Amino acid sequence: MNYSKEQILEMMSDNSYPLTLKYNPDWILENAMGSHCLWLQESLTQNMKLTPGMRVLDLGCGKAIGSIFLAKEFESQVWAADLRITPSENWKRICDMNCEDKVFPIKADADDLPFADDFFDAMVSINSLFFYATGDGFLREHIFKHIKPGGEIGIVVPSFQHEYTNGLPEKYLPYMGYGIDKYHACAWWETHFLKSNMVEIVLCDTFPTDNNGNELYRKSACIFNAHEEPFNILAWDDITFTRIIARRKP
Ligand SMILES: C[S@@+](CC[C@H](N)C(=O)[O-])C[C@H]1O[C@@H](n2cnc3c(N)ncnc32)[C@H](O)[C@@H]1O
User: Fold this and answer.
1) Which residue from 128, 131, 132 is spatially nearest to 112, judged by alpha carbons?
2) Is ligand 1 within 6 A of the CB of residue 224?
């Protein structure tokens, strides 16, 4: 089903994310990459301590609108790192939003990040880590070392409500191309983080209030038409978002 512009704007006017309400919905729609990035970013910042001047890595930033959000709302310095969206493309968006003194676009592969160890005060990653960071040891070897001890790491990834240990239900097989074969449950992600031995968990949930993660996923799918309609219907029951905030151990 296609939604009218009025219906989409109505869905986007969610008071649970008051900072996001300041941003033009057309700008969000134009630069979305499958989910409502600002809602997810704000769900992290409601629980993280971001302060002016802090060095923050936004890994897999896509079109950098979440990075711009962090700079504008918290006056952080944000390194907007992505493998496929070019720095020049993001720089234009950054300048259009007057954030050129705070958001620094960079092409970077999570496999081999071009940053010093312990460089960042904090890191965020929205709707991205599940594509490349699920291998054993990946977080330890490639990601967490760039965040300084005591720094916070906040991520949101699409997830299953429960881990499917014996293969995915048949209804999902036609939709593997959407990355759904890389989804895991919240508890899986918590274990994956802890196995690094480098972090302690501050918060790990699926936006529990009224099963909010599933509601957010469903709304994102409607708003951004990220997937074909049959997928949306099949997905709604057992897909959610997992949110983790961890702190690098001293
Ligand atoms: C679904 S998009 C999400 C983008 C953005 N965070 C958002 O929420 O709008 C996933 C992003 O991860 C990036 N990505 C995929 N593999 C990557 C890798 N190995 N290193 C860095 N970024 C990667 C893609 O280029 C893409 O922009």
Assistant:
1) 132
2) no
Assign residue 217 the CATH number of its domain: 3.40.50.150
Atom number of ligand 1 nearest to Cα 37: 8
Q: Identify the pLDDT of residue 215.
A: 83
Per the structure, the complete domain to which residue 236 belongs is given by 5-248
Write the pLDDT tens digit of every residue in 202-226. Answer: 999 997 665 678 888 888 878 877 5
Whether 105 lines ligand 1, by a CB cut-off of 6 Å, is no
Which residue's CA is minimally distant from atom 8 of ligand 1?
A: 37
What ligand 1 atom has the least distance to the C-alpha of 111? Answer: 19
Query: Does residue 37's CB lie within 6 angstroms of at least one atom of ligand 1?
Result: yes
Phi, psi of 185 (to 5 degrees): -85, 165
Number of domains in the chain: 1
Q: What is the pLDDT of residues 123-163, one digit of tens each?
A: 999 999 999 999 999 999 999 999 999 999 999 999 999 99
pTM, two decimals, is 0.95
User: Facing residues of 143 across strands?
Assistant: none
